[in-house]
Structure formats: structure tokens, C-alpha cells
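Lab notebook: predicted structure, single chain.

Context: the supervisor wants predicted structures on file for every construct in the current expression panel, including those that have not yet been purified. This is the next one on the list. No modifications to the sequence; it matches the entry in the shared construct table.
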Amino acid sequence: MAEHLISDRATLRAVYKPPGDGAVRKVLPRLDVHCRAFIARSPFCVLATSDTDGNLDASPKGGPSGFVDVADDATVMMPDWPGNNRLDGLENILDNPHVGLLFFVPGMNEMLRLNGRARISVDPAHKSRFATSGKLPVSVIVVTIDQVYLHCARALQRAELWNPANYIDRKRDFPSMGTMLADQVAGYDGAATDRLIEANKHDLY
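Prediction complete. Output recorded below exactly as produced.
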């Protein structure tokens, strides 16, 4: 049976209703007071990047509320702390500076979307802005804003993301990270990974 696909913009637009006036006009070129307040309260965002061939990456980024610093109305800065050192997103930025950020605030169903151009800085002055317990991030992602706007609540309302009744019992309902990796990678020592995760769970910076 043939699959019915959409292959051009005219057909796509014919399937959907036109966007509302507010959805079009709400896009801002710079941060306003509400965007600043949202970023100041956000402990988590997703950074979307792409290389020059269109290969994509979406990386979770987190910290205390306001971990992304507003340098000015057209610039935000994000510390990059030690992680798995794959550097997928950072390598993409070197190829293609265009990035997207999606900010979340716990308990709030609206989100904040930010599109811009990123660069990777190891400037001591930039890194010192994020000093935590005497430690500095490895680098700082500096994003010059092209577009920023508040995103409607429907996706998180559908998901009921903040509803505690939807939380799973991790030990009962889902295997550990080490167990999953051992299932996926031949010869992998999952038990050692679980011990390492437990030992390092408070060593976040």
C-alpha cells in the first residue's frame, strides 16, 4: 500500500490551518523582560546543532536555575562542563554556528525557543562567570540571538510532564544504565558503569 507523503510546502500548508496572528508576530530579535525572566528561572534546556551535511544533534544542558547567563539582550552564555567528551554539539558548532535552544521551567508548560549563532570560547573572563566550588567550565558556548519567542503549552500539557503521577519507579520499571549498555555493546562491563555512576553522582562539576 502506497504511503501518502508531503513533498512540497504548498501541500504542507494545505494540510494545516494558517498560523494565528500571535504565533507569527511573537517572534522577537532580542530578549525582553519576560524572556530574561524565563532564562533566569530555567535549570534545563536542549541545545540543537547541525554539521554542514545536515547531521543533527540535540544535547541536554542543565544546572541551577539561571545556569545560562544573559550577557545582554542579544547574547546568552552557557557553560560546558565535563561530560562524556563525545563533543557532538561542539564539533557541529565549529562546522555550522546556527543553533537552537529550548528552555524549560519545572511546573511551567510554556517553553522558550531561541535561535542564534554560537561560538566556543575559552576566554578566562567568560569561564570565570560560571565558577562553581572553585571549578571552571571547560568552555563557554556564546550565542548571538537571531530569534527568541515563547512557545505555547500544548506539548507539555499533552505529555503531563510535571505530573508526579506519571513518574516511573526507576528501580522497578526500567533497567540501570549499565545494564542497558551491556545489552547493547558486546563485552561491556555494565556493573562497573553502574558503580562509577553511583560513585560520581555528586561530582557534577
